[in-house]
Amino acid sequence: MSSSYMSWRSSASNRRPTQPTNTSKNRGTIYPDLNQDPTPKPVIHFLAFALIVFLGLLQFLPASHFRHPSDPHRKWVPFNSHSSPSPTVKLTVDEDDGLIHIVSWMQCLDLKVLAVLANSTLSSSRYPDMLHFHFFTPQGDKDKVSFYKLKVLFPHSNLELHGQEKVKEIIKRASSEAEYDSLNLEEIAPFIIPSVHQSLTKFIYVSPNLILMGRIEELTGIDLSAHAAAAAEDCSNRLNSYVSSDVLDAIQRSASKPWISVTPYVKDACMPDLSLLLINGKKLEEFLEAVLWWSKVLNWSDRSDKRNPAIGLALYNRYLKLSNSWLVKEPASVDTIETSMITHYDGPKIVCSEFGNDTIPGSSHGNLWIKYLPSMSNQILGI
Ligand SMILES: *[C@@H]1O[C@H](CO)[C@@H](O)[C@H](O)[C@H]1NC(C)=O
Ligand SMILES: *[C@@H]1O[C@H](CO)[C@@H](O)[C@H](O)[C@H]1NC(C)=O
Ligand SMILES: *[C@@H]1O[C@H](CO)[C@@H](O)[C@H](O)[C@H]1NC(C)=O
After folding, report:
1. Per its UniProt record, what SUPFAM superfamilies does this chain match (predicted)?
2. How confident is residue 89, by pLDDT bands cut at 50, 70 and 90?
């Protein structure tokens, strides 16, 4: 023990004196270098500094090119080139994720109708990879089979299925059973969805039975900050065909509610077309209350035979009017197909009923839908 200790000490004490000689030897080799260090002229200092400042200032020039995050080739696209996407479309979509959210609600699941809606929208868009579909279906995200069938057809699309319970619950809690039954869920749901899905604040709602032929991204440049919604006016459907102007005048005189128009109601005002809407979730306070109030005041739950004008009345003076080209046209003639942005789905579809949800048999279908659902795709979806 002691010998090993001694040897350690001795080796340590032996080592110690060597250190100063080493460092003094090193120092001797370093000094000549330091002495030779060039002293640059002040002009060089200044030029180097100016170069750094210049490179730094380049950062403040406006960007001239951009790359789309989902472009596999990460190609640089100039901002002001005419053949490329106009960046204003992209930048006004949604501050958060830059996607165009397209929402639809379907009472009985009909995959063909959804596939035609998705494919016509994707095929007509210049930026299909910016579209994000949210389909609200009875089974929602629990229905994996339907989800994968749609994913097989559109592997590169952003597509989600959502359940309907939470939205239905909100409406049920606010209304009586008769009122609930008098509402068309496909019409009221878009106004309730933002309170359930906080990430969906600005979106485009499309009724499922549509074929889109216009570029949906054109709708995203519209400034909706002052309005709850935007819709096209449907002048084949006027206010006085639902409610007489005497009744409206009486209501306006006697009731005071924030959603009653201050100016007299125009008795033959065109109703909004609820099949395609731009929704601003931040401006929808009291909307459901207003719709239920109008239903009640007009006794609409007693006359379930007719379409309920309550949503149109709640939107009166509160929606931005979209250009007439976004009004849904009948797929009647070839001319209207060529000029319209949007038309009704013309294929076979499943009709909800208590006795069984069946495809309408033997009705005369158009053939526009086949373009967006070729027989190969139709087979993948099955029946
Ligand atoms: C609704 O029903 C109530 C009572 O049944 C009636 O007094 C009122 O006039 C009705 N309103 C309309 C708009 O028909
Ligand atoms: C019809 O569809 C609805 C919703 O998808 C469902 O709740 C109902 O059970 C279906 N009816 C039949 C008979 O399949
Ligand atoms: C989508 O529609 C286009 C025609 O616009 C068609 O060529 C294509 O096959 C369709 N895609 C699917 C998955 O059906």
Report:
1. Nucleotide-diphospho-sugar transferases
2. very low
pLDDT tops 60 at residue 32 = no
**Report for 102-106, 108-112, 197-201: range of highest mean pLDDT:** 102-106
Ligand 2 atom 4: the closest Cα is on which residue? 108
Question: Which of 299, 303, 313 most suits a substitution to test ligand 1, by most atoms within 8 Å of the C-beta?
Answer: 299
Fill in the DSSP letter of residue 217: G
Please answer whether residues 120 and 212 qualify as being in contact, where contact means their C-beta atoms are separated by less than 8 angstroms: yes
Q: Name the residue at shortest CA distance from atom 11 of ligand 2.
A: 356
CA distance 159 to 148: 10
Q: Is the CB of 254 under 6 A from ligand 1?
A: no
DSSP 332-357: -SHHHHHH-SEEE--S--EE--TT--
The domains located in the chain, with CATH, are 87-347+352-359 (3.90.550)
- Among protein residues, the one with the nearest Cα to ligand 1's atom 4 is 299
Instruction: List the residue whose alpha carbon is closest to atom 3 of ligand 3.
Output: 372
48 lines ligand 1 (CB under 6 A): no
Half-sphere exposure (Cβ direction) of 86: Cα atoms closer than 13 Å:
8
Q: Residue 306: CB partners within 8 Å, gap ≥ 6? A: 242
